[in-house]
Design goal:
five-stranded parallel sheet, four-stranded mixed sheet, 9 helices
């Protein structure tokens, strides 16, 4: 390591962190993650593969990687997914290769996945930072689901039924954030990201690089002290 005094990036680790954000449908987890990556450098939101058709305004390769169910099933058989799940009749999956490429260059990744997807990632023994997002109440979650105006009554009832089970998973996560107000919730998750980035195990390489710049200066300092 050079002692030349050249600046180096103290914000990046040798390997990135993998964040998981889970929440019941309608809680706002995707919006939270999108706002988070807009406000923090070196943080990327994973783009899922899905077998469902694109909705109005969605773009392939931007919102999701839209593929046929047959291709999705082939990718499952090939072990291409870090995690995948069948959610309300549509399949969603996270590419292992895409995620690893980002982590390997020292950037962080946010996976916006449901509780069953989070279980799959944990079962692989992968180190993650897990965040569960709760709505302020069941009534407000229902209000948000109805306000989206994109689901039938049967679909809304199904989402609420699943939510009643999913909220009980919160204790399996390291952090819990209540999405009562968007900006506040974004700030809370942002604080978690920054705190995790500052852990010694993450910053050891950068810290040791700084310590290297002090080597050879101790004797000079002692000499100056003696002269005084």
């Amino acid at each position: 390591m050079s002692n030349s005094g050249e600046p180096f990036d103290r914000t990046r680790a040798e390997r990135g962190l993998l964040f998981i954000v889970s929440a019941p449908s309608g809680t706002g987890k995707t919006t939270l993650a999108e706002r988070l990556v807009q406000g923090l450098s070196n943080l990327h939101m994973s783009r899922s593969y899905t077998s469902r058709p694109a909705r109005a305004g969605e773009q392939d390769g931007v919102d999701y990687n839209f593929i046929s169910r047959a291709r999705f099933e082939t990718m499952v058989r090939d072990g291409a997914f870090l995690e995948w799940a069948d959610v309300f009749g549509n399949c969603y999956g996270t590419s292992t290769a895409d995620t690893e490429a980002v982590l390997a260059r020292g950037d962080d990744v946010v996976l916006v996945i449901d509780v069953q997807g989070a279980r799959q990632v944990r079962s692989r023994g992968i180190e993650t930072v897990d965040i569960f997002v709760l709505p302020p109440s069941a009534a407000i979650l229902e209000q948000r689901l109805r306000g989206r105006s994109k689901d039938t009554e049967a679909q809304i009832n199904k989402r609420l039924e699943v939510a009643c089970r999913e909220v009980n998973e919160f204790a399996q996560y390291e952090y819990v954030v209540i999405n009562d107000e968007l900006e506040t919730a974004v700030a809370r998750i942002g604080a978690i990201v920054l705190a995790e980035r500052a852990r010694v195990k993450v910053m050891r390489g950068a810290a040791e690089a700084i310590i290297e710049t002090f080597k050879g200066r101790r004797n000079d300092g002692n000499a100056r002290s003696t002269q005084r």
